[in-house]
Amino acid sequence: MTWLITGGAGYIGAHVARSMAAAGERVVVLDDLSTGVADRLPAQIPLVRGSVLDRGLLDRTLAEHAVTGVVHLAAKKQVGESVERPLAYYRENLHGLTVLLEAVVAARVRRFLFSSSAAVYGVPDVELITERTPAVPINPYGETKLAGEWLVRATGRAHSLATGCLRYFNVAGAARPELADTGVFNIIPMFFDRISRGEAPRIFGTDYPTPDGTCIRDYIHVADLAEAHLAAARWLAGQEGPRDLTVNIGRGEGVSVRELADLVAEVTGDRTEPVTEARRPGDAARAVAAVGLIAEELDWTASRGVREMVESAWQGWRLHHPAASVG
Asked: Is the Cα dihedral 173, 16, 105, 134 positive or negative?
């Protein structure tokens, strides 16, 4: 098979592209490079620069590379920005997906893997979030991911595609320093950014109903996430006709923000006491994945721990921010 990976020059996408190529899969990347970086990809992986909104480019790419499966990661992904710019998120995430699926159907591509998110669940008050937990997103980003899942499954049923939807929990770490997340939108880079500027890390909310009063989250190493994509792609390759698999991707273990801050301090060598601030709207006390279904269906489980995530992320941060003076 030949897999088209949209958004394959991004932080997650480049890990997926490299993992699949290293495992012997033929891959081609489509990325508009609005946040992606071409240098994340090795020379042997073809890179087509452009948007999933460009139907003509999609048609040419699918034909010229004889694509037989698609891994769709290209999307806008910041929760706060989605609240401020819902039209942009629905255009890029949902209309872009529609255009891509139209091209996929026209090209008779029969396998489609969709990058979804735990944001589809909203803030469920449960010990473990299973795939059967009601999906009630609370922001436009989560809405576009849930609607995207609906569209992917409906297209699969109508046009005999095998489809998969992967609901990521909190992605962190890097397989190599140069592939690290360069944004400051997730909690670990946010800690690093404050530390590097000589400021105390911030913890939002210390009065949650958790053992230490801070939010608990499920973190997944990006290299594990990439390997999960490979497992799902190979599952899809073995399917015929309209069949869907929707699974969580996490470790099934919770880590509190306080515990994470302590680990960051240990790894970086910066012992500045975090400052505590008021809760942020929409933050659940606990969000931990149930991971039994993916283990059962794909024989896949995460193998890397939170320490490895923080250590590898810090190595990447130091590479991209050489002025960082601690650690």
From this structure: negative
Q: In this prediction, what percent of the chain has a pLDDT beyond 90? A: 94
Report which DSSP code applies to 167.
Answer: E
Residues 79, 128, single domain; the answer is yes
Q: Dmax over Cα atoms in the chain, in whole Å?
A: 57
Give yes or no for a contact between 177 and 314, defined as CB atoms under 8 angstroms apart: no
Enumerate the active-site residues.
141
Q: Please state whether 122 falls in left (phi above 0), alpha (psi between -120 and 50) or beta.
A: left
Task: Let me know if residue 310 belongs to a domain.
Answer: yes
Q: Residue 327: is its pLDDT beyond 70?
A: no
- Both tokens of 234, joined, read 């190979």
| pLDDT reading at 170 higher than 80 | yes
pLDDT at 325 (0 to 100): 58
Whole-number Cα distances in Å, 300 to 6, 29, 293 = 23, 25, 9
227 and 310 share a domain?
no
CATH number of the domain to which 316 belongs: 3.90.25.10
Q: Per-residue pLDDT for 238 more than 60?
A: yes
The boundaries of the domain holding residue 229 are 2-171+220-249
pLDDT of residue 324: 73
Q: Check whether residue 84 and residue 157 sit in a common domain.
A: yes
The verdict on residue 284 lying in a domain is yes
Per the structure, how many domains does the chain have?
2
Distances (CA, A) of 276 to 162, 188, 273, 327: 47, 16, 9, 23
d(CA 161, CA 291): 25
Q: Are residues 120 and 24 in the same domain?
A: yes
Tens of pLDDT, residues 189-203: 999 999 999 999 999
Angle CA 302–175–49, to nearest 5:
110
- On whether the pTM is more than 0.70, the answer is yes
